[in-house]
Specification:
The mean pLDDT is 88. Among the domains are: 3-79, no CATH class; 168-203. It has helices spanning 3-21, 26-36, 52-79, 133-139, 142-145, 148-154, 168-186, 191-202, and strands at residues 87-91, 98-101, 108-111, 114-118, 129-130. With 210 residues, it is mainly α.
């Protein structure tokens, strides 16, 4: 092989390495996701787009997306908040406090007395939404977090209310169940309807077949 052949081979290999290691653009990721919608699921009487040979690849792809996409989206929303005008510490007077899904990590929270709200790039102009204590600690500007009233608020019990179970594991499981219910309820437009029907619907958890 000549020197030119070697250089050409190196360029090809470098290009292949870049292709395999560099993150692909988000638009391309979206195209891949949309392409899945055209896939034929298949069944007893039809052949699907993918078969057993594809299972491990698809499963690993699902694991990667489930693991990486939420923190990427969280980081984008957090870094979009203006450090000077995007954070505010406010008083909450409503009986149920300030509650919903965190504007940054989209996990459920509920604050009484006071709350921290932020404006992210995907909110309406002048719209502020609540943020959980964890995201305030992780993403809040130092000058904001170190304000006396905010620092005092952050040092309160994360869950606000006192533990109801003496056993730490049982208490953790109780909280996880409550958060799961809140996560689901706040992810729909029918939060009130879901909460009102929750007790009745949950009776079937131990009696209905699926």
């Amino acid at each position: 092989m000549t020197a030119e052949d070697y250089n050409e081979l190196i360029e090809l290999l470098d290009g292949r390495i870049d292709e395999l290691t560099k993150p692909i653009p988000s638009a391309q990721i979206l195209r891949f996701a949309e392409a899945l919608r055209s896939a034929v699921i298949g069944g007893m009487d039809s052949v699907g787009t993918y078969d057993q040979e594809d299972y491990s690849n698809l499963l690993e792809a699902q694991n990667v997306v489930n693991e990486m996409l939420p923190p990427i989206l969280e980081s984008i929303r957090a870094t979009s908040i203006d450090s000077n005008s995007g954070w505010q510490f406010t008083t909450v007077g409503a009986g149920n406090g300030d509650y919903g899904l965190c504007a940054v990590c989209e996990k459920p929270y509920q604050h009484f007395g006071h709350t921290v709200q932020v404006h992210t790039f995907d909110d309406h102009l002048n719209a502020f939404r609540g943020v959980c204590r964890g995201c305030v600690r992780e993403y809040g500007p130092i000058a904001f977090v170190e304000r006396k009233e905010v620092d005092t608020w952050l040092k309160q019990n994360k869950r606000v209310c006192a533990a109801k179970e003496k056993d730490r594991k049982r208490e953790g499981q109780r909280i996880d169940l409550i958060d799961a219910i809140r996560q689901h309820a706040h992810s729909t437009r029918y939060f009130g309807d879901v909460v009102q029907a929750a007790t009745k619907w949950s009776e079937g958890a131990f009696s209905e077949w699926r």
